[in-house]
Amino acid sequence: MQVPLLDLKPQYRALKAEIDAAIERVCDAQAFILGSAVKELEGAVAAYSGCRFGIGMSSGTDALLSALMALDIGPQDAVITTPYTFFATAGTISRVGALPLFVDIDPATFNLTGAAVERFLRNDCERRDGKVLHRRSGRTIKAIMPVHLYGQMVDMDPLMAVAREFQLRVIEDSAQAIGSGDAQGRRACSIGDIGCLSFFPTKNLGAFGDAGMCVTNDPDLAARLAMIRVHGMEPKYYHQLVGGNFRLDELQAAVLVIKLRHLDDWSRARQENACFYFGAFERAGLKEIVTLPAALPGRHIYNQFIIRAPNRDALKAHLGQSGVGTEIYYPVPLHRQQCFANLGHGAGDFPESERAAAENLALPIFPELSREQLQYVVDCIARFYGKA
């Protein structure tokens, strides 16, 4: 049996007529830049995320970059974030000239916690002249950038309490978490100052190429983000600040408008697949060997289904030979990446992130998987660990 990590073709086949018609409407109108589809998508995604404003961006990376720019974060500043995430999180901090300051993750959720961020601020930073300064670098800490990793929302209340105490802004990296929620029903993106989404094709809501969005409840930030994505221009040819070309493409927006209508159904299917995995791993006697994803109260939307696995690399090879697609998210934590060698971190500095990088493996979880395919994945894992 073949079980790919992800197969987008069934989703497209089911929506082909709607999507093709939407693309044709854009082609007929020949309005390719910031047209009606972008406006419709911005309103729909903002409402879906519990926010007042949506500002379409050219990618999730550019959404993060624009959020940092909108909050005037630049050289001499620093942003607290996680070392266990996709590169763009810390990469965009560096691109605006700021310093990424890493805090280790919670081993169960792989996310930042308010308690860990608070310890860092109290132990490694000091307040001086109304600023929060990082002692070692001398940089002014301006913001916290938590990541809702794998579709599991960060426990935001403790984090927001710390942000308020230290007067820090919060940018929610929600690239993998559209629709995820907490126990109070609040959605990822809706709690911090700005939320950033990615619509990369492999995401739960995926475009036909790169696309992203910033969402916010602050009208001033929304206006600033809208200017930043068009070279800081408002009105036309009058530039109030230096921005970039970060516009969401009209064709991508037209596709996403169609797909958004089906997102809750896809999320439910992912949750049902996760539930099947939990039961199948228990029936196979694997729960004492493999650690399954933790789910906090709320809505985990399983952008990825991540297990901790002993002898992970050999298991990955075994599954590949058995026709099961897997992926390692992420094999090298950010503090060990060559481009961040100047930060001076070494092995062991962030042990939970390093352990996650060594043990975590993503299994197929996409909505169209059959029960037979899911069971086959578990059976292959059971054979590897001698539980078949």
Helices and strands in order:
Layout: H1 9-29, H2 36-48, E1 53-57, H3 60-70, E2 77-81, H4 88-95, E3 99-102, H5 114-124, E4 125-128, E5 131-134, E6 140-145, H6 156-166, E7 169-173, E8 181-182, E9 194-198, E10 212-216, H7 219-228, H8 250-260, H9 263-283, E11 298-299, E12 305-308, H10 312-321, H11 351-359, E13 360-363, H12 371-384
Parallel strand pairs: 2-3, 2-6, 6-7, 7-9
Antiparallel strand pairs: 1-10, 4-5, 8-11, 9-10, 12-13
Helix pairs in contact: 1-8, 2-8, 3-4, 3-7, 5-6, 9-12
Walkthrough of the structure:
By secondary structure, the protein is of the alpha/beta class. The protein has twelve helices and 13 strands. The strands form four sheets. The protein has a seven-stranded mixed β-sheet with strand order 1-10-9-7-6-2-3, with helices on both faces. It has a two-stranded antiparallel sheet with strand order 4-5. Strand 4 and strand 5 (about 130-135) form a beta hairpin. Helix 3 crosses helix 4 (about 90-95) and helix 5 packs parallel to helix 6 (about 155-165). It starts with 8 loop residues before the first helix and ends with a helix. The mean pLDDT is about 95.
Features:
single chain, 12 helices, two-stranded antiparallel ribbon, 13 strands, seven-stranded mixed beta sheet, 39% helix, alpha/beta, globular, Aspartate Aminotransferase, domain 1, 388 residues
Major beta-sheet overview: 7 strands, mixed
Supply the helix-strand structural class. Answer: alpha/beta
Order of helices and strands: HHEHEHEHEEEHEEEEHHHEEHHEH
Given as residue ranges, the uncertain stretches (5+ residues, pLDDT < 50) are: none
Which CATH class of the largest domain is shown? Alpha Beta
- Could you say which overall geometry the principal axes of the C-alpha atoms support? globular
| Average of per-residue pLDDT values | 97
- Relative strand content: 5-15%
